[in-house]
Amino acid sequence: MTTAQETRYYSSEEYLELEVNSDIRHEYIDGLIIPMTGGTPDHNQVAGNFYAVLNFALKRQPYRVFVTDQRLWIPNRRIHTYPDIMVVQTPLVFEEGRKDTITNPVMIAEVLSTSTKSYDKDEKFAAYRTIPSFQEYILIDQYTMHVEQFYKADNNKWIFSEYSDSHDSLNLASVACQILLEDIYDKVDFDVKE
Questions:
Q1: Using CB atoms within 10 A of its CB, is residue 99 exposed (0-12), middle (13-18) or buried (19+)?
Q2: Any idea what DSSP says for residue 119?
């Protein structure tokens, strides 16, 4: 006779204590601690390309751009997560009692993978929308040239656009930056599969 393993729920404080001492990153979702998988070379290339353009375009402006390792706290959903790319207006607003976890992103971009695509498009986007400062969400497919853009027009109203041509220009609505898809996908080899 086998017994079901009991699920352990952690407080946010317990998670943070474990996380700062861990060699790998974990998400925290309402008491559950979930290990984050590593990315593919193309995932990292796309994230790096997008970060580089943003970081250069926003120099000497009141924004900070973060890639991969900056923790975000979403209090309304009790989630700690690590978005692929975040733009945050300064000054940075931190989770109470922390100096390593921010709460005020303006724009978030996620590079989609097979295992996270549905979560990023649905539950994660719903969680991000509970953040008062959040204005724009970019979803970048790593397997084919395709970018989806959502930006906030009014309370509860989001505008959707999509781009699939290398000469398409993604014009961000939350910050002054535009980027060609061919620059986002520079050095990405679509023939290599995950």
A1: exposed
A2: H
The conformational region for residue 58 under phi > 0 = left, psi -120 to 50 = alpha, else beta, is alpha
Task: Tell me phi and psi for residue 13, to 5 degrees.
Answer: -65, -40
Cα 185 to chain centroid, rounded: 17
pLDDT tens profile 16-62:
999 999 989 999 999 999 998 778 999 999 999 999 999 999 999 99
Residue with tokens 């984050």: 36
Taking only the tens place, the pLDDT of each residue in 89-120 is: 999 999 999 999 999 999 999 999 988 899 99
Instruction: Check: CB of residue 170 under 8 Å from CB of residue 147.
Output: yes
Task: Detail the DSSP E strand segments found in 83-163.
Answer: 85-89, 101-102, 105-112, 136-141, 147-154, 157-163
Model confidence at 1, in pLDDT bands (50, 70, 90)? very low
Strands (E), 24-91: 26-29, 32-35, 63-67, 71-74, 79-81, 85-89
